[in-house]
From TrEMBL:
GO BP terms, alphabetized: amino acid biosynthetic process
Entry annotated with the keyword Amino-acid biosynthesis: yes
Keywords from the UniProt entry: Amino-acid biosynthesis, NAD, Oxidoreductase
Organism: Parahaliea maris
Protein name: D-glycerate dehydrogenase
Residues covered by the D-isomer specific 2-hydroxyacid dehydrogenase catalytic domain: 10-318
Lineage, broadest ranks: Bacteria, Pseudomonadati, Pseudomonadota, Gammaproteobacteria, Cellvibrionales
Record carries keyword Nucleotide-binding: no
Domain named D-isomer specific 2-hydroxyacid dehydrogenase NAD-binding: residues: 113-287
Molecular function per GO: NAD binding; oxidoreductase activity, acting on the CH-OH group of donors, NAD or NADP as acceptor
UniProt xrefs under Pfam families: 2-Hacid_dh, 2-Hacid_dh_C
Family, as annotated: Belongs to the D-isomer specific 2-hydroxyacid dehydrogenase family.
Length: 320
């Protein structure tokens, strides 16, 4: 059996070893860039398993070129919006992702870290100091940080990541928690005093906003220009979910107008290159970039491929 990895992952030797034990030969593309389309087309026509990253577009046209023996597309990541799951299912191809507890914990920790750093103006202060040869003069007239303690945190998407963010911020900083989700979370409402609100209410009344909603047809551009206009000028906005959830040009315009305290974006598109505002943090989709999380995800990718190819069942199949 043959498998192809679109580019090296955190522990490629571990991945290759686990597959080899099951009689699966792994070919690895060693270039660190996103896999070119022509390479995907070549490989999908010859392998039993395609091991992908969330930046690889696995659409219906590509799947139509798949070899008859292709049985699994194993995505390295919690998300799977890069894969046409329906087209894969129609061809009898299993799609898997890596929803490990370690990945959820890592992303929640990163969300909190970015939120705190932007609220405290750490990115802006760092850039300012690096541009100088000595410390700036102290002044009470300079732009200041905003406090986090006792504030209202609005969480867009109270799932496995958002709920962890809520627990950290409520327990550690005494935040009042409100959330928008398609499904009510009564256990969190009871445990944290969280309240479920509609999205306009959340955007209008939150001091801190964290976007942790999965991307789907329902949620694409959920944080629209209209929603962005509702935010308070002192609000801090963080997105560690998917860039397509947010009307990015509208967010950039709001930032450049000086009408937000700041923003932290782990996911984004090209519009961020137009940001002139100083209090931002861009972390290049590294929210779950952590040794424990990546080891667990690498292991799960291997286990999914082995299980799919040997039993016809995966451990974490995508059920969209």
């Amino acid at each position: 059996m043959k498998a192809f990895l679109t580019r090296e992952t955190y522990d490629t030797p571990l991945l290759a070893e686990k597959l080899s034990v099951a009689g699966i030969d792994l070919e690895v593309r060693t270039d660190s860039s996103v896999c070119p389309r022509e390479v995907l087309e070549q490989q999908v026509s010859r392998v039993d398993a395609l091991l992908t990253h969330t930046e690889d577009e696995i659409d219906a046209d590509l799947l139509s070129r798949a070899a008859p023996q292709l049985r699994v597309v194993a995505n390295m990541g919690i998300g799977f919006s890069n894969i046409d799951v329906a087209a894969a299912r129609a061809r009898g191809v299993i799609v898997t992702n890596t929803p490990t507890e370690e990945a959820f914990e890592a992303t929640a920790e990163a969300t909190v870290a970015i939120l705190l750093s932007v609220a405290r103006r750490i990115p802006a202060l760092h850039v300012e100091r690096r541009a100088l040869t000595c410390d700036p003069d102290p002044s009470f007239l300079r732009a200041t940080a905003t406090s986090v303690r006792g504030k209202t945190l609005g969480i867009v998407g109270m799932g496995r990541i958002g709920s962890r963010v809520a627990r950290i911020m409520h327990g550690g900083f005494g935040n009042r928690i409100q959330y928008f989700d398609l499904v009510a979370k009564p256990e969190l409402e009871e445990a944290l005093g969280a309240r479920r609100v509609d999205l306009p209410t959340l955007m209008r009344s939150s001091d801190l906003i964290a976007v942790n909603m999965p991307l789907s047809q329902q949620t694409r551009n959920l944080i629209s220009a209209e929603m962005i206009d509702l935010m308070q000028d002192h609000a801090t906005f963080v997105n560690t979910a998917r860039g397509e959830l947010v009307d990015e040009p509208a967010l950039v315009a709001r930032l450049n107008a000086g009408k937000l305290h700041g923003a932290g974006l782990d996911v984004y598109g090209p519009a961020v290159d137009d940001i002139q505002f100083d209090n931002i943090a861009l972390t290049s989709h590294f929210a779950n970039f952590e040794d424990q999380a990546y080891t667990a995800m690498t292991t799960l990718v291997a286990d999914n491929v082995v299980s799919a190819l040997t039993t016809g069942q995966a451990l974490t199949p995508v059920k969209e």
